[in-house]
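Course exercise 7: structure representation. Students receive a sequence record and must write out the corresponding structure in token form. The form below is the worked example handed out in class, using DONS protein (550 residues). Read each field label carefully; the graders check that inputs and outputs are placed in the correct fields and that the protein name is recorded exactly as given.

STUDENT ID: A-19
EXERCISE PROTEIN: DONS protein
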Amino acid sequence: PAVPGYSPGFKKPPATLRLKRKRPRRSEPQAEPQPCAEAPRVPPAPARRNPFSSLDNAPRGRQPPREPSCVLRSFFLQFLESAYEDKPSRNAERPEGANVLTLAKDLHLPALTPDVPTSPRHEFPADWSIKTRLLFMSSQPFTWAEHLKAQEEAQGFAQHCRAAETNLPQSVQEPKLSTELRCAFQQSLVYWLHPSLPWLQLFPRIGADRKIAGKACPWSQDEALQQALMSEWSVSFTSLYNLLKAKLCPYFYVCTYQFTVLFRAAGLAGSDVITAVISPTTRGLREAMRNEGIEFSLPLVEESRTRKQKNSEVNLEAEAAKSPEVSKSPEDGEEPATSDDDESFSWLEEMGVRDKVKKQDAISIKLQKEKHEVQVDHKPESLALVKGTNTFTLLNFLINCKSLVAVAGPQAGLPPTLLSPTAFRGGTMQTLKARSINAKARVRLAYEDVFSLEVIGPVMPHSLHSLTMLLKAAQRGAFSAVLYTHEPTAVFNTSLDNASTAPNKETVCKDLPKCGLHSKTLDQLSQLPTLGKSSIRFLEMKDYAYTWKS
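STUDENT ANSWER:
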């Protein structure tokens, strides 16, 4: 039956495509011979130029192979990527003689004025921040760091547990055959962690919700399990503090989901007492610490306040010098403000309700006084410094602080992470992950071998210094390193407000050699911090002398 409006010639799109596939191709013989079938065929038209190609990537006749540079880019960009948010484009043009070291410098160093010493030095300053990744590069191979034998690995663990000190010559002639060097390398990769949950990445904890989300967390809904984890954590935390007090542990970190605490033994960072620095902090945390009787200071806030006072005094003196008849004392300048405040509430007195809002006014005045402190919440300037016996009060405060552990989210019920360079009760031995990669970099008209060594994990200050000492001997005093900092810990390089005198320092540091660190590492960490709120981003050694950028 005929359907109105239906065309039998209509075909669905799939049927049309099938018809196009069935059409004979030009190369196939035609079904019916045409009169001009024997005429010579017209040559095919030249291939159309790719509109997406450019002069740089268009095919050329004779061109030197580009595979090494591609391999180099694929190798090193994966390490140097994601260091900073404002990365330059990968396709940026570079000079013909640029090598991989220049690539590392240009791509992933912050756009700040570099803090480079005027002349190379034989030691770099102590960096108390935690590094998440190190990338060493050198013209000498890192084959000595590959495929450690079982005996060398075991010897490295034994040297760490016994705090054995390894002193290498200035230059190792055959690094790959040096058992002493390979054992010391394994020893420098060891650190201690609590809690130990192999299926979770427990550092960093700040901003780690995405990495932990979706993983098995049986304690999140089990209060009994949460109490058991916190009980074991408290024992480990107390054990670390006791070791620190006895100078058997040089320092340790407490990493929570909101802030990080660094405890340092007396004699380190230029202080003659135990110190603890907390960053970042909030007004609520500081208020809770005050209520517990913990005395602390805000070094960066006080420094900023002192700087502003000096600037204001200089400005007042300059104005007084220009117009002495109009100059006023600071006390005279403050009186009008007080009268203005009184006049602003005069209408409340007329209505007879001035007394009812007195309490609210007191709160507003208090908030106004603490305005400069509230403005630094969650910022590096909110760094809090606790010294001496107050650190023990801080220990008890952190153990009993309910806000130390997340109540909701992927980290709910998970105790903070404890990181230490030495063993402690409940701690688990862990090792940093290290691997070496070889590539080629184009230098002028030739390709040169460039070797790299990547170290991943929570790299603490002692590990960084130990690795540089080994590389100094193995790489013949020439290497460079790109350092990736856990940003919330960069402010730990702030200088403390008290420096130990020389005689007192000798007395304080008398028992520190028992803490298990190399004597040269201990000397470096004993110095007063000089990096401020920044950390070392790039480290280079040439002719056994260091230069760095922060």
